[in-house]
Amino acid sequence: MSANPNPVSVPAPSPAPDRLCTGLSWFEEKPALTSVEGGDLRLKALSPGTRLALSWSGRRRCVGWTAPGKGRTACADDAEIDGGATLAQCPACQNRDHGLAVARDRITDDGRSYQLYLAWFAPGMLKVGITGVQRGVARLLEQGAIGYTVIATGTLPAARRAELTVSASGLAKERYRSRAKVEAWWGLPETEGLRSALTEGRIKALRMLADHTLDTFPDGSLVDNTAFFGLGDGAPAAYREVEALEDSGSLAGEVRSVIGKHLFLATEGGGAPLLLDTRLLAGRHTVPMAGANAAADAAGAGSGPTGMRTVERWRPLLYDTPTLF
Q: Is 110 left (phi over 0), alpha (psi -120 to 50) or beta?
């Protein structure tokens, strides 16, 4: 048999790009899932109604560290991260990260201006914090603040002293656990409680900060994110919360709402919506899936998300009358 004089050359399939997910960030009050591919930053918009379909595989890696004006620097050791950690950084990169250094009081001043804010998460859950002026409201959206008000600006040392003063008074805490925030969503909306708590909190905070070197905002605006986060009727009465991701898996569905770094997803496998803390995706090698039946192609028809451990959550029952027993 003679050889084909005009052989057809079939190119080998290109390998999937090494796309390292770095988590969820807010850009101009819009959420996006971020990843790095080589030296390029990739964004996947996560606005309500958009479709999210991806798979992940391989070991979980450190996402590196960030610094003002430099962006993200890759981890020098390509360190492995525990699958259940919500902070996808190795100790060395945590030590280099500017944001963590500020939060952990390892930087006394960096020459930038900071905002002092009060954030409201639910009745009895008032938080005081600081964020760089150049970041706008991104920090408040990242932590899922249901309501907030900026009460002053100043240097890092001045803003930090004010934060510690307000926290030490018992008026507001410096942090709340993610689990407490999520459970509080069932009790929303609490618009009047939100506005009164922020108004009264601002008055009290500014009174105790009268002798601090800050530019204060006695009449600053109050922001209510209840509807913006899709919580006008509170969280879904029942949902499946992702507790951990396995080394490989996939998910696909429609984004219902994004609250901080959490998202509710109506999955293509059906059933109750899925609640995913996107911090669990950070450090994963992810591959976008295309096509109307991407989830079925990846995991088998009708099987829904794979590679994750979930727990069912139900809205607590409320009783209007005293118990008889």
A: alpha
